[in-house]
Each structure stands twice: as C-alpha cells, then as structure tokens.
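Researcher: For the annotation table, I need structure tokens for PiggyBac transposable element-derived protein domain-containing protein. Please keep the output clean. Sequence:
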Amino acid sequence: MEIVDVNASDADVESESDDEDETLAPQMKNHSPLSQQQEGNLHPKDLLTVGCLKVTPEEHNSIDEMMIPFKGGFSGIKQYVKGKHHKWVFKNWARAGQSVMLYDFDVYQGSGDNRSNKSGLEVAADVVLKLTSTLPDNNNFKVYADNFFTGLPLIEELQKHSIHYVGTARSNRVYNCSLQSDSDLQKGGRGSYERITTLWQ
C-alpha cells in the first residue's frame, strides 16, 4: 500500500525510505466490510472448511450458531454480544453431528452481508440451505434446528434434496394453522398443550 502525505513536497516524498514505509504500514487498518476486502483475509477459515468437509457426515446433523470469544484488535467481523461473559465474539453458523463433530460452518459478517437471502427465503433459512448444500443429495439426512431457522418454505426446499427436518417453529411462521394463541394456552395452566396432526402429501 502506498502512503502519501498530501501536504509534502515532491522532494519530501522522494526522500522517504522503504524502511519508513514499512514502519507505517502495520498502522494502516481496513475497516471496510469483509465482503469488500481481499479473499485472503479468510484464507485460514477456508482451509478449515475444506478439512471439515473431507469427513464423512453423520446421518443426524444439528444447525445452530457458534460463538468464539475474541480479544484481538481486528474489527471487521467481530460481533458485540450484550449480557455475555465474553462481550466480543466471532459469530458462526455451524452444522455438527451427534458426535459433536463440526462438519461445516460459515462466518457471520453482520446484517450487511451481501451473501444473505439468495434463495428468496428468509435469511435464517438461507443459513440452513447453505450448510446443507454440502451434504450429498438423496441420502435421507436428518437436520435439527431451533425456531430461529424453522419455516415451512425451508422444509419444502430441503425435501427436494431428500433432507428431513425437525425443529420448533414460531407461531407467525405456521400459516393457516388453527392452534390456540399463546395467551389462551397459558390460561390452561402449567402443562397445557394442544396438538394437531397433519397428513403430509
């Protein structure tokens, strides 16, 4: 990277030695979004991903977020998590097996991540689709996730690849369903529940 003082004369600029440039270079910081930086910034991550994908996946896989505590100075992708013991973390989306073996992961780059929402579904659904895209098709893998990810369009998309999904669902993502509201269910007291059985076509 070339460093030029706009107030310096041509003679001043020419007199600067290479050694001086080298002492200044480490002080330069790139605060642009990670997606705009050189791909080399995540090169170690890519190597780790390749290693994970070499392992034969298990039949049952869980998808969730994974927090990695971070105390360094690079601020491009670290996230602030309020109320946690470790305030600054690298946030990752991860797919792991029953053995807790990590098979695939993706680094969360913030709300401005231009890789999100490529399928036309919700961003959380795209996370699941990306992490399951590295699973071989038509092998009847089972994927488990919580209500942050779950939605009927996601389940339908996974079915196209013979991937079965189990997860809790938020009421606003279950359409045309006549279940009681949360407030009505709470009136029934502790242990109350309502069940609906659907024949999958």
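Researcher: And a one-line annotation?
Model: The chain has six helices and six strands.
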